[in-house]
Structures are given as structure tokens and as C-alpha cells.
Fold this protein.
Amino acid sequence: MLKRFLKSIFDNRSKEDLSINVLMVGASGVGKTSTLTAMYDRFNKIIDQDLELQLIPDDETSNKLNKKLIELKKQVATDFIRTRPTVAGTKNFDEFKFLIAKDEDSHNKIELTFRDFPGGYLQTERQKVKDWVKESDVIIIPIDTPSLLEEDSIYNEDANAPEKLYDIFKSIKGSFETKNRLVIFVPLKGEKYLDGKLYFTNGIRDRLEKEFSNLIGLFKSKALKDKIALVITSIQTIGDIKFSMIEQDSKGRPLFVYKKKKFGAKYAPQDTEQPLKYILSFAISEVLKKRGGLNRTVSNIFNLDREFVEALQEFSKDYKQDHNFVVLQGEELIQNNLTNYST
């Protein structure tokens, strides 16, 4: 799918080929839809208008994200939020479709399809999950950061399912050898752990590498290390609400408590655009390697498409790399530099 997509950008092939499939893989209630909503909202706030680049949802996606955005903003209006590390999440398989383009009528466009499935499928529908993984070009693994870090990670398996993911990916290891892929670990709800001086520590990264060591080891194996770009990018899903403590309900079950950072707090996610920067940088890197590597001139390849590619590069070039934002492997698969090719 990705090879056809990359080729079609310059060959004017069918719309179906102008696509990147992004699979969001995580346990129920980890915050996958919240992350996608925050990413969309953040993109619109930070994009340089001179780039003439939009992230355009289709009507169904727009309705779903706007509804979720209202829910997230309401959360900030409350003093405390209490959740369980295994709260119910998506009930059904869902797709969120976007165009990356100047506008809907532009000839130059990329279709991004984000797929989200119920976390319970990791146990009950493993074959479906395996098939979706095989079809994907990018895999996002959202991680509930408080469950990862608090109480010596005792809630991590319930909330983030590292061993379930390892078992599934290991069983289809051969499919990862067929094409380049991008895998992004996205620690969510990181407000507490990225606040003040804590931002300049490696706490999230170090614990993630420990708790997901089997899965990371699989991706770093000899057979896969040249095929997979592996990234950690931590985000603050809401911004002005952070983890506070763990309480127990009347039955002794844990409740994770979040509270406002300050009076008058507002919905203010941070760094939620970073996964998209990595995704687009990876895609354009693949384009340049396949089209520029044969010493064909950029002017002959791109024509009017050059401006579109340059806009994508400009947006994606400054993905964060520090402390808890790190490329663990395969940076050569996500670097893109148009000046490396003749004009």
C-alpha cells in the first residue's frame, strides 16, 4: 500500500493509492480518540498559514472529533477527574479520515486514515488485529503515562498491554520485513511528568524502554532494524490538568485522580502535533528516496508538486528530539531533505 501511495504522488494514479494507513494500537480507554482530537485541534493552531497546508477531516470524522473536543473541554471545567486504568474505550472499530492538502479541490493531496479498534480486541479478535497491523504503514501505540510510571508500574499491563502487543507482533514478525514502517510510542496524559524541571529528565523514556523491552527488542532485531523507524514522542493530552494521586473505591479498585494545574485552567494540549510531524516526515522521506535516488532531477519529478512536498517538509522538519522525545531507531527512514537532490 505505501509503495503504491509513494509512487502515485507523482504518477497521478488512483485516489485509493494516495493514502497512508495509520493503526492506533492500545488497550481500551488509553486515550486514542482524545489524542487524535488533540492532534487535529493543535495542527490548526500551529500551522503556518503561508504554507497553505490543511488537515481536512471528512464530514463524519469532523463530527466525531468536534463531539470529542467538547467532551475534553468540559473535563477542564471540573476540579477533579477520576478514571480507572482500564476504563471502557472505543466500542467498535472506527476510522478517521483526513486529507493533507491546500484545499479539497487541490490536485496534490494525501489521504490519512487513522484506524481505531476496541482494546478488548487484543484478546478476543487477535486475527483481525494482526490483519490490520499487516495493512498499516504507521503504527501508533498510545500509552497511559500515569499507569506506566506510578506505583512501580503495577497497572501498566492492564492499561497499556505491552505483553499482549508483543505476542501479537511477534507472531507476524515476517510481515514487518516486507516494507518500511514507522512505529510511534505516544505516552499520553504526561502533564505531571513534563512539568517544570521534570521536562529535562528521561523518566518517561527510561520506564517505557524497560516496560516495553520485549516489544522494542523485537523491533530492533536484526531482521527488522532496517525496516522500522521507532520513535517515542510524549504529549500533554489536555494541558492544564495533571495526574494527582491514586484513590481506592469502595471495592478496593484504583481510581486515578487528575486535577487542574491552576484556577481558570483551559483546554491547552501540548506537543500533540508531533506524531503527525513524524508521519509526514516518514512519508516524504520515502518519496525522495524512491524518486531522487535514481539521479532524476527534482524539476522533472515534481513540477507543481514540488511546492506541496516543500510545504510538507517545512511542517514536519522540526519534530522534537530531546529527553522524552526520541528516535530510538531508523532516523534515516524519517529524515527528508530536498536539497540533497539535484534541481
